[in-house]
């Protein structure tokens, strides 16, 4: 255990994938990994408030998705499925660091990171994981005729062809405004301020500078293409394929999704288990509300850590 350090490797199409790790890869001391997957236009640095506490309980790895952070900038690959394939290759790469031990992975997907994990399950199953955490993301951003998926469930600002095209145009033509609007929507104290908030103006400015700075590392034309794929991708049936324990974390002041939309993941996971005859309360999907926004890991880092630690203890107990 020590400070986080950057490492990288190259996936099958030659793209460099960077990630931060709390363990040295030549001599990792633990075989349980908390794998942090950031959201749209973010990076592994999003979790800098969480690294110290999480690395105290598990090998902590935070990836920079392709097109983000320190990872490569390919012309293509702006698809959620390609990001899921990259994640599969990362886990395979990490597994080689402990060739004689089983790697126990708990992925934590935030925003589009959750979509990447749902796609991972659809493509590869959930057999690489011992539990899964999804943070503030509904399984479909778009509205849909199927399942009566209406405006109360879809993304608040990007939910059909017209709003998607407008969002893509905005990210391409006015990126600085798009970056700042993202911060306004994703921090609870900005989206829905309360008298009880204690964030100072200086801290608010520092938060905005940090998140805008991470978004500036991205090619916004590439991001706009990724946004199109992400918005149209329906993950509801994929949620029904998950067998491992699931925790859904939701921000009550999220500018992106309603609680009702995010609860669909819990309902779908539990439906899939019921349909397969798996009805154990010990492994049923659970939801947890945070008094913060879309980036709840930033606004409530201690509670975020405590819930992941609690989940780890739970799955380890089940494994005995």
UniProtKB/TrEMBL annotation:
Limits of the AB hydrolase-1 domain: 33-301
Ranges in coiled-coil conformation: none
Any one cellular-component term (Gene Ontology): membrane
Pfam families reported for this sequence: Abhydrolase_1
Protein name: AB hydrolase-1 domain-containing protein
Originating organism: Gomphillus americanus
């Amino acid at each position: 255990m020590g400070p986080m350090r950057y490492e990288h490797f190259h996936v099958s199409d030659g793209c460099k994938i960077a990630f931060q790790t709390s363990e040295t890869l030549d001599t990792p001391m633990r075989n349980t990994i908390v794998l942090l997957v950031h959201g749209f236009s973010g990076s592994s640095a999003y979790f800098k408030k969480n690294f110290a506490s999480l690395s105290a309980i598990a090998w902590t790895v935070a990836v920079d998705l392709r097109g983000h952070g320190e990872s490569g900038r390919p012309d293509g690959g702006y698809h959620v499925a390609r990001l899921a394939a990259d994640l599969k290759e990362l886990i395979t790469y990490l597994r080689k660091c402990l060739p004689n031990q089983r790697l126990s992975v708990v992925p934590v997907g935030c925003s589009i990171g959750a979509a990447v994990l749902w796609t991972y399950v659809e493509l590869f199953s959930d057999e690489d994981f011992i539990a899964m955490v999804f943070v503030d993301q509904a399984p479909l951003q778009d509205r849909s005729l199927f399942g009566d998926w209406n405006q109360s469930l879809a993304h608040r600002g990007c939910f059909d062809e017209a709003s998607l095209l407008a969002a893509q145009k905005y990210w391409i033509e006015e990126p600085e405004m798009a970056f700042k609007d993202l911060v306004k929507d994703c921090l609870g104290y900005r989206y829905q301020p309360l008298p009880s908030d204690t964030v100072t103006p200086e801290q608010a400015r520092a938060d905005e500078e940090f998140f805008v700075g991470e978004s500036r590392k991205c090619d916004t034309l590439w991001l706009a293409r990724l946004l199109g794929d992400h918005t149209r991708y329906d993950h509801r049936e994929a949620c029904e394929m998950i067998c491992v324990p699931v925790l859904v974390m939701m921000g009550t002041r999220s500018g992106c999704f309603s609680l009702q939309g995010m609860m669909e993941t819990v309902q779908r996971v539990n439906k899939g288990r019921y349909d397969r005859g798996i009805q154990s309360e010990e492994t049923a999907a659970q939801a947890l509300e945070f008094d913060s926004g879309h980036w709840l890991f930033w606004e409530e880092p201690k509670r975020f850590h405590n819930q992941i630690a609690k989940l780890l203890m739970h799955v380890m107990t089940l494994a005995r």
